[in-house]
Write a structure and sequence with these properties.
Blueprint lengths: L1 H23 L9 H8 L3 H7 L3 H13 L3 H4 L8 H18 L1 H11 L3 H23 L2 E3 L3 H21 L6 H11 L5 E3 L2
Antiparallel strand pairs: 1-2
């Protein structure tokens, strides 16, 4: 019984997320009501409120759902690459994710006029970087800058650049952005200890 209920919950969430992004193509987030969202998804309003406090709570869930596609792809072995290759692999994965979801990302940023999506991506990226750098620190690598700060620095820079790239009308390709970032990434942030 529990498995069937879980499948129904997942189906309900999927229908609601699809309805939200469909509605965002037509109107601003502020102009979308819970009733309209539920009608679009063919879900009872009571069912919506069983799972979510309000449309803002639900929108955070939508963003988290989309980010689940990104976070597993960030996992990599920092010890098998040099630090610059590691950061560049994260940058390329984020750019791939944003490029593949360009319409959704742009709609999300425009619809809410907030940093909810970029903050969530920032949090995922900085946690991944911090985790891997802390792991390498335990393996004997010494950094000139605290690893928590490095995670925030690289995540923040990447998010600011990615937001500009998605929201502007620049003709710079994803590959060109990655190439420019490659120039900017400093490989001497660490020194190996014996």
């Amino acid at each position: 019984m529990e498995k069937n209920e879980d499948m129904r919950v997942r189906r309900t969430h999927k229908l609601l997320v699809e309805a939200m992004f469909s509605l965002l193509e037509k109107k601003r987030f502020d102009d979308i009501s819970v009733r309209e969202l539920c009608d679009q998804a063919m879900v009872h309003k009571a069912t919506f409120y069983k799972h979510f406090e309000d449309k803002y709570h639900f929108f955070e869930f939508c963003i988290e759902t989309e980010l689940e596609k990104l976070v597993p792809s960030l996992e990599g072995d920092i010890n098998s690459l040099n630090r610059k290759e590691y950061f560049m692999s994260i940058i390329n994965k984020v750019l791939d994710f944003l490029d593949a979801n360009r319409k959704m990302v742009k709609l999300t940023i425009e619809a809410t006029n907030s940093n909810t999506l970029t903050d969530a991506i920032h949090k995922a990226i900085s946690a991944e970087i911090y985790g891997k750098l802390a792991e390498s620190e335990r393996a004997g690598i010494s950094y000139r800058v605290p690893v928590k700060m490095l995670g925030e620095y690289y995540a923040g820079a990447l998010i600011a650049l990615a937001k500009w790239w998605i929201m502007s009308s620049t003709k710079i390709s994803k590959e060109e952005v990655a190439g420019y970032v490659d120039i900017l990434v400093e490989d001497s942030i660490y020194s190996k200890t014996v």
